[in-house]
């Protein structure tokens, strides 16, 4: 599979941070059912999808539901790809299976899989029926891998060329593929993978190197053979470690026979690192994951078990102290020292656990 992306004009740069005023304006427009104003505030041509996603994540469920009823088209594929998982899970039931399937067709395979994972079992069947055969097969193959593995993260669109091609042939081929269009090309890529006759990756050529070289230069003379190869069953945390260790921008994914089947890019790894960091921090605090759209009951369930354990241990400590109430009454200094000892013990334990994680 050899691919290249078409160039898309980027939206104008937007300010950093979340504009609370725009969130309030969007809420007012939704309340007033002002479709024109809603589309002005959610215009992908004016702002990056990530900015719009931040705005939608601040809305309540009822606002998002009304928005989906008034202007379902504002939930574009690019916007859905930027939303947090718990918000996507909240939004998808509000959209038709046809709209979801069209979004998955436009998204790259890794983003499409992430979107599909947030659907209910019933909705998955409906969406699969709407998808073309190729996209359906790719989704099913990706779901055959365990969660949080490279097989779930990889995108099946990549750029590859044989070692005997020249720079000119590679560039011309990529231009032809771009002119033809289609959805088999990555939107963004950083390396051209060099393959042998059996479709095994044997090296890579960064785009920067490719563009600086003469057209007649062979890829085999340019390629870097220090290739870090990923297998589909590798844990995503291990993949992130490889990206950090070798300063990777992208890495090829191979099947059991060593054939190139996909690639993983650094933007996916940034998300993985953030997710793993959040997971470790929540574990440190003794809290299971709770999202923005969770109900009060779900939040209580996420936090209550460890709070109850802490309460039991505190009661146990109090019962132990009560055994020495006579000694404490005779030496008041012991009572003064108890909260200090408890506080220092807790802080020391937290620090040790933080360093270990």
From TrEMBL:
Record bears the keyword Calcium: no
Cellular component annotations (GO), alphabetically ordered: membrane
Transcription recorded as keyword: no
Key words of the record: CBS domain
GO molecular function, one term: magnesium ion transmembrane transporter activity
Origin superkingdom: Bacteria
Protein name: Magnesium transporter
Database matches in SMART domains: CBS, MgtE_N
UniProt-listed PROSITE patterns: CBS (PS51371)
A Pfam family of this chain: CBS
InterPro entries per the UniProt record, alphabetical: CBS_dom (IPR000644), CBS_dom_sf (IPR046342), Mg_transptr_MgtE_intracell_dom (IPR006668), MgtE_N_sf (IPR038076), MgtE_transporter (IPR006669), SLC41_membr_dom_sf (IPR036739)
CBS domain span: 223-279
């Amino acid at each position: 599979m050899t691919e290249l992306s078409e160039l898309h004009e980027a939206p104008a740069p937007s300010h950093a941070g979340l504009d609370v005023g725009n969130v309030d304006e969007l809420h007012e427009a939704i309340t007033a059912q002002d479709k024109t104003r809603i589309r002005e505030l959610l215009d992908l041509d004016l702002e990056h999808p990530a900015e719009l996603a931040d705005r939608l994540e601040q809305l309540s469920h009822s606002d998002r539901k009304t928005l989906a009823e008034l202007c379902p088209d504002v939930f574009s594929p690019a916007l859905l790809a930027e939303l947090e998982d718990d918000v996507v899970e909240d939004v998808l039931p509000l959209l038709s299976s046809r709209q979801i399937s069209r979004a998955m067709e436009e998204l790259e395979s890794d983003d499409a899989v992430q979107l599909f994972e947030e659907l209910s079992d019933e909705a998955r069947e409906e969406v699969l029926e709407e998808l073309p055969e190729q996209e359906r097969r790719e989704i099913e193959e990706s779901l055959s891998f365990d969660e949080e593995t490279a097989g779930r993260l990889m995108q099946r669109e990549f750029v590859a060329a044989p070692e005997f091609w020249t720079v000119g042939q590679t560039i011309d081929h990529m231009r032809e593929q771009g002119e033809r269009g289609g959805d088999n090309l990555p939107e963004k890529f950083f390396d051209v993978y060099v393959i042998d006759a059996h479709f095994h990756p044997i090296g890579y050529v960064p785009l920067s190197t490719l563009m600086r070289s003469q057209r007649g230069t062979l890829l085999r003379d340019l390629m870097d053979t220090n290739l870090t190869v990923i297998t589909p069953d590798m844990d995503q945390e291990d993949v992130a470690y490889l990206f950090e260790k070798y300063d990777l921008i992208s890495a090829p994914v191979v099947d059991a026979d060593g054939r190139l089947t996909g690639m993983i890019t650094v933007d996916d790894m940034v998300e993985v690192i953030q997710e793993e960091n959040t997971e470790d921090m929540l574990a440190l605090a003794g809290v299971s994951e709770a999202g923005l759209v969770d109900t009060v009951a779900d939040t209580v369930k996420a936090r209550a078990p460890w709070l109850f354990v802490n309460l039991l241990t505190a009661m146990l400590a109090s019962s132990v102290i009560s055994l020495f109430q006579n000694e404490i009454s005779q030496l008041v200094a012991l009572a003064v020292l108890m909260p200090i000892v408890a506080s220092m013990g807790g802080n020391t334990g937290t620090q040790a656990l933080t360093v270990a994680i």
